[in-house]
Amino acid sequence: MNLWLPFAVVLLGLFSVTGFAQEPVVRLYAGPAPGSADWKQTEQESRTNLWNTRVTFNVASPTLTVFRPPAGRANGTAVVICPGGAFFGLSIDSEGCEVARWLNQKGVTCFVLKYRLVECKTDDPTTEVMTRGPLEPVVAPIVKLALADGNAAIKYVRQHAAEYGVKPDRIGIIGFSAGGTLAVSVAMNYTPESRPDFAAPIYAVFNWAIKDHGVPTDAPPAFILAASDDPLGLAPQSVEIYSAWLKAGKPAELHMFARGGHGFGMKEQHLPTDHWIERFADWLEHQGWLTK
After folding, report:
1. Are 58 and 41 in contact (CB under 8 A)?
2. How far is residue 124's CA from residue 134's CA, in Å, rounded to a whole number?
3. Do residues 208 and 239 touch, judged by C-beta distance below 8 A?
4. Which residue in 63, 76, 164, 166 has a CA-CA distance of 20 to 30 Å to 138?
5. What are 222-261's pLDDT values in tens digits?
6. Domains located in the chain, CATH noted
7. Where are the alpha helices (H) located in the chain, listed in sequence order?
8. What is the pTM of this model?
């Protein structure tokens, strides 16, 4: 059965909290997502939580929300954006929609990915993730499903490149925290159809990544970024990603801010990390991905 929806762009009536018009949403699979066909949970949102941001949780049907650049500004580059949230939720604005809108102004067409998550037993994923005990055994099977969603997202954008005004050899992936785990997993596990042309794991949990076969011989260039004072102790894991890319002889750029903590995304903290996305844009420009 063909699991792809060639032209099925479904308007789900989703509005951003900042008042922008609704964006088209694409379902990645025609039916239940492979590997989780028996899931019964319903996607929900939390707006009052410990993370003080809108959080999407209980994702069972993966989607891409499409953010296009202003008319005449598209340069042919596309990015799949993977918000973080420990695989229990998605920080959908600060690590998703706001990133997309900023990159749109640089001419980049963006696709915010809602990938499959751990089923929450409560209506507050931010509290639940702190009370579930050791997370790795709970998260490990979900990472494999999320990787499939990431691969499917890259493949979808490439198959529909002409429709979105995207060049099929200029499709990258960026992810934050658990989304960074997903981004780096995709950058190490792909087929020719799902290979990203660049990858940007941002304060990624590399310990959770699927990296059984190491960095591929044709691995994409990597942009890696985190804060040294990450309270989850993840800074060394970004260094580990950088070292793995260098050892494999693949291009990589590493940025480590002295302060910034974890999960800063597009939040304003009056710290140098407020400008991290400008460094990412500098890198994209140097690679030639911001030119038409």
Report:
1. yes
2. 18
3. no
4. 63
5. 999 999 999 999 999 999 999 999 999 999 999 999 999 9
6. 9-287 (3.40.50.1820)
7. 98-104, 125-131, 136-159, 161-164, 178-186, 235-247, 276-287
8. 0.93
